Amino acid sequence: MATEDARYRQTSQFQLWSFSPTQLSSMREKTNAAARTRIAERLSSLPALANNTSAPTSSANTPDPDGTSTPALPAFLSAPEEAQLVTFFTSELLRAGDHAEMTDEIKATAAAFFRRFYVTNSIMTYPPQEMLIVALFFGCKAEGSFVSITDFVKTFGRENPEEILAGEFLLCQGLRFAIDVKHPFRALRGALMELASHPNVDRARLGAAETRAREILRFSPLITDAYFHYTPSQIMMAALSLADRGLAEQLITQTFHHVAAPTDSGADTPAASGTDGPAKEPAPRSDDKAQIIGSVARDKVLGTIEACRDMLGRELPERREHWTNRAVIKAQITPLRKKLNKCRDPERWNLVELQRARREQAAKKSDSEDGDPDDRDDSKANNKNSNNNNASDAAVFGDALPRDPKRRRVLGEGAGQKGKGLDDPFGGPL
Amino acid sequence: MTLDPIEQLNEDEKRKYIKGKKLGEGTYANVYLGHSRRDPSLLVAIKKIKVQQQYQDGMAPDAVRELKYLRELHHPNIISLLSVFSSKDQNLNLVLEYLPLGDLEMLIRDVDRVRYGAGDIKAWMGMLARAVWFCHDNFVLHRDIKPNNLLIAADGEVKLADFGLARAFADPGRRMTANVITRWYRPPELLFGARHYGGAVDVWSVGMVFAELIIRAPFLAGNTEVEQIALICKQIGTPTEENWPGVTQLREYTVPTDVVAVWGKEAYMGRFGAVGADGVDLLVRTVALDPKKRITAREMLQHRWWRTDPKPTKKEDLPRKSGGAADEKMGADLKRRNGIVDEDASAPRGSKVARKLDFGQAK
């Protein structure tokens, strides 16, 4: 079987959820722009909007994709603002996980789920306070801990399991059904075991490094984009380097120890090795070695680890306090959340209502998706008229009524429960 | 309601396949025959996971596990998960490769019409061993290996299916449930309630499948766990501190009072000699009582039996059954519910309910 690298490239973590920083930020921009357009459309189609905002104008019906110049529409969050809120809610997620005494793997998986979900879904579309609990719930399951939903919600001082269950499928879909997350925790244990196998090791130093590195792994990579950009082993090395740079470098230099022999000086010019006859026989092997564990590879690896180290260094575990600091929240987070409360998606925000609407729609569309193949051929024929047609047809006949009360409810919440919306997502202070 | 990008993506995925007739209906899932819209000759099995009445906590554990592991494991001897989508009523649909030739159990049982020999057994066992090695090499325990989870593709390739009980290797020291693997294929450490175990549990099941392929009947078919232990003691030997240091510490360790010494290779030759002395050697190593002494999946692949005569039969020449019966068999295999309810490890507090499992539905 292939090398570990080749195998990592088979994982969904690499294939679906690894991006360069440029790719990631352009995805977030796209998600943000698409959400603005859709929410603007949906808000404008609500007659109640007139009551909700000042001075209805004719332009309310022609949504502006920027969402800024139309007075009737609220100000939308920008992509960087969304990212900042996602980071804030990730810290909330980790606190909630601590509160419920979950394992490191569960918390880490849940955090990865949450951040992945909001790469292709806007925080203006689906409610982050609910989705972070959903991510924790599904994180438990993904890590093999199957818990009763009733007990689960109680842990967070919530009454209603329905909204968590309603979000589960949505989350799963947003993860593109890839629910295996690879973490750096085991890699750290392995690295420490390797370091400990050397003679004359300073055990106290190793112990301290492991403790600190683990502390970093529990927070820094989870609240940053590290999982999108780096492999678990790179993240582990970066955390170890932050904990004890000397030890990390020792591991790297030991691994990439190949020094080109003097006769190999032509390693970069393959032609040279072919001309020298039998004496150079082992040369190709040596070249391979140089490529895998030589100085060029070493420097490349060191560069990557350094970049990851920088990223983790910006969110060291001490920053946990930053994200719960009242002054910080008041200055940076509260304004964004107020903004969010005004620009959220009227059709998607309430997960329970959303699920109900979906089910009704499904029931209407084909009485039994599970029934005879004939039924399915029917719905297939419908589908030919493109999904959009289908959906708008449904809206014309069936959706108008159930939509009305739902909308009122969402708007009502927005207007009446602003204070509650800003509450701690899992109950009071811990 | 208009579609968001994530919903559109799902819709596109769903539209890639056309669902056909129902192959099977069960409490856990319904299975349909389907085909690709673009290439109607590409057949698939669509396993639609039902929203379960008895499981109130959202997506059911078997569905979560199956999704998690099949999404990651890509190997010719493991059933391929081609796609996943949700239907409108929010049911999970797993699109699996279509395996039209039934399963190993069918072939084993049909004594009258299906004849096979040592080369055929070697071929099937080789494919099974590769599948198990691949799982273990990826740190996944299957935990339900048995003949009717070994499905057969159109070209004769054997594919390990049903990952509804699978899990990742636990970190040392972390507990797992002992209530896994269908009884007849369950190793003694699990019958004794071990909470820490590894790939050796699957290897025992492989040994049981191997034995069953040879004698064409389940080798150790206990009706209860106690009976299963008694059968192991009688047919293989009684686990004792001498042959398995530490076994008496396992919390459910009880064995019949008349201790049977572990049988040597010679004792197996009469009943299992059809696969030759080397084959019997491999069999005996897979059923070592002490899991530490049991052969590993990797060592299995290095065993000399594969390289001695007869050669494994080419997969296209393997005996097979064809026709509708096999079709229904895949439906029946995929929809079957496997028995676990609760899982190991630490959940958020207060959630530990160790419910006993019923594996009786297997037979």
UniProtKB/TrEMBL annotation, chain A:
Signal peptide limits: none
Biased composition, class Basic and acidic residues, residue ranges: 278-290, 356-368
InterPro entries membership: Cyclin-like_dom, Cyclin-like_sf, Cyclin/Ssn8, Cyclin_C_2
A biological-process GO annotation: regulation of transcription by RNA polymerase II
Matching CDD domains: CYCLIN_CCNH_rpt1 (cd20524), CYCLIN_CCNH_rpt2 (cd20525)
Family, as annotated: Belongs to the cyclin family. Cyclin C subfamily.
Protein name in the entry: Cyclin-like protein
From TrEMBL, chain B:
GO molecular function per UniProt: ATP binding; cyclin-dependent protein serine/threonine kinase activity; RNA polymerase II CTD heptapeptide repeat kinase activity
A Pfam cross-reference name: Pkinase
SUPFAM superfamilies linked to this entry: Protein kinase-like (PK-like)
SMART domains cross-referenced by the UniProt entry: S_TKc
Reactions catalysed, as given in the entry: L-threonyl-[protein] + ATP = O-phospho-L-threonyl-[protein] + ADP + H(+); L-seryl-[protein] + ATP = O-phospho-L-seryl-[protein] + ADP + H(+)
Domain Protein kinase: 17-306
Active site (record annotation): D144
InterPro entries noted in UniProt: CDK (IPR050108), CDK7 (IPR037770), Kinase-like_dom_sf (IPR011009), Prot_kinase_dom (IPR000719), Protein_kinase_ATP_BS (IPR017441), Ser/Thr_kinase_AS (IPR008271)
Residue ranges of the region described as Disordered: 306-363
Basic and acidic residues composition bias: residue spans: 306-340
Domain of life: Eukaryota
Residues that hold ATP according to the record: L23, G24, E25, G26, T27, Y28, A29, N30, V31, K47, K48
Gene3D superfamilies: Phosphorylase Kinase, domain 1, Transferase(Phosphotransferase) domain 1
GO BP term, example: positive regulation of transcription by RNA polymerase II
Gene Ontology CC terms, in alphabetical order: cytoplasm; transcription factor TFIIK complex
Assigned keywords, A-Z: ATP-binding, Kinase, Nucleotide-binding, Phosphoprotein, Serine/threonine-protein kinase, Transferase
Similarity comment: family membership: Belongs to the protein kinase superfamily. CMGC Ser/Thr protein kinase family. CDC2/CDKX subfamily.
Protein name: Kinase-like domain-containing protein
Taxonomic source organism: Chaetomium fimeti
